[in-house]
């Protein structure tokens, strides 16, 4: 592999930061979910890159990546349900309009 | 085979040229590999276009005979060139984009839908050793690539900015992702027994006894054929394109070459479903009981499967959308789970 | 960085370099699309592109199995679900007049940028404990064995999490019978 | 091929399974429940047959497993089949199966039909545990469980006050004996370090002499309770409140014989232990005589049989006491058959006539021929007429008494002979009054019982007549030689026929029957006149020697009185002390309450107040908008990462 490990990490860092920015600023709840997915993807790239460069025989990082994917799928499914639920009750999915948690 | 020899010669010529022109052995090998890729890619593309045209002709012939008609019979012998004529017509047609469509999405959809269909042919097992790219995870590759077409359908449905297209697209996607589950689960027993996801190894494991020749094999095969039919949206699962309800579903707004691409993708997917069914259950290029192996058998099986799918079209009426969902989730899925459990128990007892 | 170009590279290495940076650029553009575009459906398509790019990166990193699973899960399931979500909540998100980002835009940008600056400064200067790959790389069989031996417990737990998420999603999204 | 040894646990477990099934689902099965129970009983019988056959070939079967560790001593549990066990197995499973079948007819239409069979199965399980167990602990477990079953079945018709009371009485009387038994087990465990019969028999010679007297007598206490010997005999006559098949199975044939079996099984403790043997033999002899005299005057057919059972059990115990370790079990077996038959016959009569009073019966021979003939068979067996079963076993007992080393054995012999005459007389009286002569009560329309009841009667009759033959001189005392296997520590001695003893016993039996004939058939001697002439004795016998009254006067009254006294003590003194303590505690509690209210609560309220005030300020951060929270979280994260990395750099520099 000619590309050094650091470059993979930097790619993942860039995508992570973009995702983080999106999660912090998007108003649309679906947009937030997508940004979170971006961050998870970035983390996965990190895991796989480390797995390839540090322990290529055991593939431990890949296993963690699979777990992350399963969790991502689960979170999207539940997120979809929650968004639909909120939309049905409030007619909006703007995250800064949903402040039911305020006491 | 002359075609193979030709490819061989081409590759030899390229590597010789590279060496005589003074490139290092590494670069020479690189060029050779590029040449091989181009050759294989060209062959696959050619195969796809020929087969797609043949299938369109075949569909019309079969439909015709099943309805006591003759079908296309004017252009060429038995109307064989009808498809070519149609293709030329579609190519020459004016390309119209409706005003309110979401331009980039609408434009990209037909291109993206063809890509997975074509990529799937990378794993087409013509004969022993004649697999363009015998991946270790071939089956998984085809399944994964196939799921990309969902996005393209969504794009077409959404981009058309037309409520029928949107509903058609959503129905299609719901149907595809629902029936993908039993389709994959139907193949799982085969993978368990062959211990591999590679087409080559799965077919080699059936060199004497096809997977169809067992109780679980029959069950798996039936589940796979049903869910495969649903995945490519053919009757009786053609709800997304139900003309009486939704005009033509997600490709209502397309015409000309874009429409042709959707058409090609549809027929290509049909070939892929038939190919998987033949390779996984019907022993691929093998005759049963060690009677021989030839690419001819493979193609014959694929066409027999395609004929079966066409036969379905004129035999079964269309299902309602809720019936289809109930059938997929409450009938096929439990049966395929039971099948997997049964094969697993059988394997555990045998070991 | 400089020694990279001093050595004579083989054609395969050139291919790798070109494809990596190409894919990386594509992914970054797509990721920016995800967080900036007004049309949320286009954002979803951007997410699909990022997922496909990640799959390509996995392929480069010899993680074939993971690459295909990535396509299957992200493109086939996650993006599809998100697209459904977009369709179902379209009335609330379609208007171009609706503001797409909230009030904490500036402060978020500063915070994220500070984190980014710190890491982009530290990553190249850190010495990573890498090993030269010899012998067989981890393939699907290795992963499967690991799942059913060392990682059997997390594997079971994640299965239960998926099941619970499935049931939870159904319960949440189900319309209350009147 | 299956190893038979591993199948032995199934013998008790099948009835246990039947019990579980019936207690859970029995009420839904209605009268089909009986099939489960009968099936289990027959299966147990079938499974025991190979074991019995093996003992006939002079082999024994033994299996054991470690149950638990007490300290570091392993307590082993095991099953064993030798000839003594085989005899008991045969008696229990064979008679038991027949009585199961008989019960189908007898209990027909009872509202707790399935419950009855569930109890029978549980009893079967427990009894087989006693019989098969190779150590005292297992025997004790079974022992307690048969006690429980006995209690449940005696008070089966608990709506009747007398039945409920009889069950309780049986339970309490048994408990007294069990205390002795438990003490005996503990002392054996302390002495030998084991309670396994074989191992105990091997170690017994280390403890010769008087050391064994007390454990032996304690062990015998258990037998006294279960086999209803004097002074704990009072429960058995009352136990006749239970269903008649239960009386036949539990209170005549098997459970009450468990005491005899247990003494025989642990005979190595008594052997050579003259003091203990004296206790055993005298108690047995006294019980035999006393019960026989009471049986002379009873008018309830089941009561007569109950006292007869007591008397015969006394006979067996006496046989063991005088060293007739084979004669006792032999009589146990013959008695099991003819007494089960007598009870079942009595049950059939009760079923047919609806009364238990023999004065109202009479002339049933014509109406109930099968019952009458089978009853006759049992009668000749118990009366000791040769060559029927009872004769051979009784003769064996008398012979061993005659030859016994126990002091005063000739006195015991004389009482035994006299008791035999009494036995013949009262059995003849019952038979003549019930079946012969004319019907005295015209109201009663007797009818023969159904086939399901009479067939077991016929089978039992055959065995009652001929089961003694293997132990007779004609068979060369085959039975005695066979049973000798179970007593390897005893020297087998030749059995000498004593025609004097035999003759005396036959003469006395015949004279007893003859007297009864004269009194109740011919009427030459009027029973009333006889009763008048020895009126005090007659009344004494009729009131069962006043045992219940004596116990009431000397045990129960003082006991009640002492409980009253203790109750008063409890109310006035113990409660007074407790109430005083409570008063003091209340006073202290009030002081604490003051402290709690003003000082502790004050501090707590202060905390609450501070928290409330400070949260007003902190609450401003809570906007309810998720992204604000995430932002705060990320800021925190960024700070941590910054500090951590700067710190590391500092360390490096």
Detailed description of the structure:
- The complex is a heterotetramer of chains A (103), B (351), C (178) and D (653).
- Chain A is mainly alpha-helical and 103 residues long.
- Helices cover 76% and strands 0% of the residues of chain A.
- In chain A, helix 1 (5-25) packs antiparallel against helix 2 and helix 2 runs antiparallel to helix 3 (60-90).
- The N and C termini of chain A lie far apart (55 Å).
- Chain B is an all-alpha fold.
- Chain B has twelve helices and no strands.
- Chain B has helices at residues 2-20, 25-66, 82-92, 103-120, 138-159, 163-194, 199-204, 215-231, 243-246, 256-281, 295-313, 321-350.
- In chain C, helix 2 (11-36) packs antiparallel against helix 3 (40-60) and helix 3 runs antiparallel to helix 4.
- Chain C contains eight helices and no strands.
- The longest helix of chain C has 26 residues, at 11-36.
- With 178 residues, chain C is mostly helical.
- By secondary structure, chain D is mainly alpha-helical.
- In chain D, strands 1-2 form a two-stranded antiparallel ribbon.
- In chain D, 48% of the residues are buried.
- Chains A and C meet through helix 1, helix 2 and helix 3 of A and helix 2, helix 3, helix 4, helix 6 and helix 7 of C.
What's this model, at a glance?
The complex is a heterotetramer of chains A (103), B (351), C (178) and D (653). Chain A is an all-alpha fold and 103 residues long.
Task: List descriptors.
heterotetramer; B: 351 residues; mainly alpha; 2 domains; 12 helices; C: 178 residues; 8 helices; 73% helix; extended
State the shape of chain A. elongated
Helix fraction bin of chain A? over 70%
Rg of chain B, please? 22 Å
Q: What is the helix content of chain B?
A: over 70%
Structural class of chain B: mainly alpha
- Please, how many helices of chain B? 12
Separation of the first and last Cα atoms of chain A? 55 Å
Return residue spans of chain B where pLDDT drops below 50 for at least 5 consecutive residues: none
Q: How many structural domains can be distinguished in the coordinates of chain B?
A: 2
Query: What is the mean predicted local confidence, pLDDT of chain B?
Result: 84
In round numbers, the mean pLDDT of chain A is: 86
The number of helical runs of chain A is 3
Q: What is the N-to-C succession of helices and strands of chain B?
A: HHHHHHHHHHHH
Fraction of residues in β-strands of chain A: under 5%
Largest β sheet strand count, sense and barrel closure of chain B? none
Class per helix and strand makeup of chain A = mainly alpha
Structural shape of chain B:
globular
* Count of distinct strands of chain B: 0
> In percent, how much strand structure appears in the residues of chain B?
under 5%
